[in-house]
DNA sequence: AAAATAGACAACCGCACCTCT
DNA sequence: TAGAGGTGCGGTTGTCTATTT
């Protein structure tokens, strides 16, 4: 049995909203608050679909909306966030107070796309248009390619955890570097969220190479070293499923130093704007599954960035048919 | 001045996810 | 655990306005 329609289509208005309808909706929400969009139209005396009311309120009538043109800073932030998150407009909107996902989406399609094209940048991949199309396959280490086939992001604000999912054509190193840049430049005026990125990657090992588990000698001035290839059966080509979780958090809970303007409500991230005044750390932890092999194999992915303590590999490689490693990617 | 075209943005649609029972 | 209902999201379409021919 199919789902019942969200509203009586025969008795609902469509198209542009009139001033009277707007006023009715505003009045109703001022009195009763948001919520239960399905029953709202009837209660408010509107001949509209609940979804339509919700959209009208969120995209147009909400009092905290910022009207007017996008600033250059907003442009750049949108571009950066899009390179990280893809077409996750609601996520991007969450970082732009007073802007809606719909507005940003439209703005992207009408302005930013063109702007990037004029810069010679592909709006979808954020790569140079002159660059050879690599699709989603990015060389990450000698004799290794990494293909990100899917990714999931968990944003865990203190008050309200949110599960986000997105597909990304970026490799973890690129995304990590981008996140790091944002944090360093303070353009990511994040609330004090803990972000957990789960990258599901397919590592295509093209040559047999044994991993060892050592990251000593890493320098902090370099780009983070790329994952070492997953060991492969001699001469064979194998694809590995690798789930990585990335945590962006605070260096230590006790060392937090925040100037925070906390939203009174956790319902929207738009008003949440806490400036990071601490040194965040980025941490990868992951589990690598080796579904097609029988021997226990280690995957060591130790990346480090910034001026943090150098040290030995933090891997906690366990033996067994399925390996679990902790991959620490630290920025201090 | 009128018609054609392009640009901008509001709104709709269908699907996916989440929660509740 | 499965199904139903509610909500949110992303892609697409429709409509209005500005510009060009």
Automatic annotation (TrEMBL):
Pfam families assigned: Myb_DNA-binding
Domain Myb-like, first and last residues per copy: 9-61, 62-112
Cross-referenced SUPFAM superfamilies: Homeodomain-like
Primary location: nucleus
UniProt xrefs under CDD domains: SANT
Keyword set, alphabetical order: DNA-binding, Nucleus, Repeat, Transcription, Transcription regulation
Ranges where the record places region Disordered: 209-236, 252-272
Gene3D superfamilies with a match to the protein in the record: Homeodomain-like
Domain HTH myb-type: 9-61, 62-116
GO terms for MF: transcription cis-regulatory region binding
Localisation: Nucleus
InterPro entries in alphabetical order: Homeodomain-like_sf, Myb_dom, Myb_TF_plants, SANT/Myb
GO cellular component, one term: nucleus
Keyword field contains 4Fe-4S: no
Keyword Cytoplasm part of the UniProt annotation: no
Top-rank taxon, per record: Eukaryota
Name the record gives this protein: Uncharacterized protein
Species this chain originates from: Linum trigynum
Phylogenetic placement of the source organism: Eukaryota, Viridiplantae, Streptophyta, Embryophyta, Tracheophyta
